[in-house]
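1-aminocyclopropane-1-carboxylate oxidase 3, pasting as requested.
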Amino acid sequence: DWESTFFLRHLPQTNLYDIPNMSDQYRTAMKDFGKRLENLAEELLDLFCENLGLEKGYLKKVFHGTKGPTFGTKVSNYPPCPKPEMIKGLRAHTDAGGLILLFQDDKVSGLQLLKDGDWVDVPPLKHSIVINLGDQLEVITNGKYKSIMHRVLTQKEGNRMSIASS
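Structure tokens follow.
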């Protein structure tokens, strides 16, 4: 994989203060960011409950576990690649989690989804969140919601960034 990453844990216990060389301003912004995304994820799970005919809060309870929900953010950088035809930015995979909220780069493309056997580009969109469903949600909904196979292609030009929270 042609990427460099770091992972911030928000729940059940944060690691924001364990990561060296991070400014207090960035820690504060990421703490606020994590809380807002957690709230958005809970709202989306309630909409899924409504769509599935389940009681409000059911999916939140399922993902709560014995120690509370696990929620974190993966910050990724995909630098320019001199031979993009020889390597993937991130190999094809599905996400193990339930619900993934992705802020992708608004200028450099690379994200693709597998749809009906073909890879489809997800264009960079400014001020948008890509909502990806993971393996756990597919299992919990007995396949009514499907986990999405996706990958990231390397680019010869441009530095691609993404922030994925789940």
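Note for the archive: DSSP finds three helices and nine strands in the chain.
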